[in-house]
Design brief:
The structure is a homodimer of 195-residue chains. By secondary structure, chain A is mainly alpha-helical. Chain A folds into 2 domains: 7-52, Arc Repressor Mutant, subunit A (Orthogonal Bundle), CATH 1.10.10; 54-193, Orthogonal Bundle (Tetracycline Repressor, domain 2). In chain A, 70% of the residues lie in helices and 0% in strands. The first copy, chain A, is built from 9 helices and no strands. The first copy, chain A, has helices at residues 9-27, 34-41, 55-77, 83-99, 102-110, 117-144, 152-164, 166-169, 178-193. In chain A, helix 1 crosses helix 3, helix 4 (83-99) crosses helix 9 and helix 6 packs across helix 7 (152-164). Chain A is elongated. Chain A starts with 8 loop residues before the first helix and ends with a helix. The A-B interface holds A 26-28, 30-31, 110, 113-114, 148, 150-151, 154-155, 157-162, 164-166, 168-169, 176, 181, 184-185, 187-189, 191-194 and B 26-28, 30-31, 110, 113-114, 148, 150-151, 154-155, 157-162, 164-166, 168-169, 176, 181, 184-185, 187-189, 191-194. Chain A binds a DNA duplex (30 and 30 nucleotides) through loops.
DNA sequence: AATTTAACTGAACATGCGTTCAGATCAAAG
DNA sequence: CTTTGATCTGAACGCATGTTCAGTTAAATT
């Protein structure tokens, strides 16, 4: 049997990425085989190669899509306002966005070493762009005198690490809502960088 | 040829763990083969099984050793003193200890999903013990009134995530010494949890 | 109704995997 | 000097890997 019904290209394509996303996040890139992905999609392994040139591209495409979506969504939030307002917006945005995409976040942080050097460089550049968004806010706050003078680069890394860490323990069915988590983290971030 | 000189058991044994540590940290557990480990040690793959029952035990032993060493070293630091003093000690200890063992830390965080369920539970319990050390300090500080009343469990996770994140960017040959990094992070931690 | 073509199957390719084990080697013990 | 036993080799086991491709199916086009 070949195709069982209809033209599936526009259906199967996304399903391949979806399956790869879920399986990579759960078991890790190296531990997932093309045959497992194919089984999840409901096709034979060979059929995957209608939608990706190879396994590496699957990982790269997932990461690139995630980083570009993140930057695009963040761009909508970037606005005027005081550094304090902008930092609160960034903090809440980061938490909300990352809680909604735990699989993508997991992959984006854990599978960097499974990218080829060229692919790694490209993803790393996008990540750097995102970090620079926060760093710019911190620098502005220092100039306004509302944030303590400090090493903004390290502050940036520290704040992002703290915020992203929320994905390791947060469960939607847990005792705290995403909104409450946002508030708690915003409290800590605000105090940590303030004078 | 078999053995080339002398009795190597007490030399080869540690070298197997060392090689596994370095390779797992660099490429990931699933991506490293027993033959690669053997090559690094300078023996054939079969010889590894004189030192480990299987590949999984290699990963588990590395993680367990790391967590137990961490807890043992931390126990030496645990003392009396104000909550603020204890928190500073914990912060500086955590950063120093983790900067000295980037490979172990990397594995301990990235390869949890490659542990069997039983092994995972054991490592997770050790990690929880360590987190509880910090949580106890934060709770004591709240009772003393020197730390802001807050959700101590979340504060714990946030602080540890922030501190451990230092391993992702710190380079010994970089512009900052470990001592300077300790001070910067301590500044942020202190402010973040204070009233 | 005939033709084209996108979508997929199923088998095959070479290579690598974790693990086992009989046999070789050589330091140490008697 | 002989025996013992720890240490390691080298080959083999069955199975899984990413990827390719000739052939099959059925929807879309003529």
């Amino acid at each position: 049997m070949a195709r069982t019904a209809g033209s599936h290209s526009d259906i199967t394509g996304p399903r391949v990425l979806d399956a790869a996303l879920r399986l990579f996040a759960r078991h890790g890139y190296a531990a997932v085989s093309m045959r497992q992905i194919a089984k999840e999609v409901g096709v034979q392994a060979g059929a995957l190669y209608n939608y990706t040139p190879d396994k590496q591209s699957l990982l790269f495409d997932l990461m690139k899509r995630h980083m570009e979506d993140l930057l695009a969504e963040r761009a909508k939030h970037r606005g005027a306002g005081s550094a304090l307002e902008q930092l609160e917006d960034f903090t809440r945005f980061h938490i909300r966005y990352h809680l909604d995409r735990s699989d993508e976040v997991f992959i984006a942080y854990m599978e960097l070493r499974n990218l080829t050097p060229e692919n790694f460089a490209e993803i790393e550049a996008l990540r750097r762009d995102y970090e620079n968004e926060l760093e710019a806010i911190l620098r502005q706050g220092e100039e306004e005198g509302v944030f303590a003078p400090a090493d903004t680069r390290i502050e940036t890394m520290a704040v992002i690490a703290m915020l992203t860490g929320v994905t390791t323990w947060y469960r939607a069915e847990g005792r705290l809502s995403a909104g409450e988590v946002e508030r708690i983290y915003w409290d800590m971030v605000r105090k940590a960088v303030s004078v």
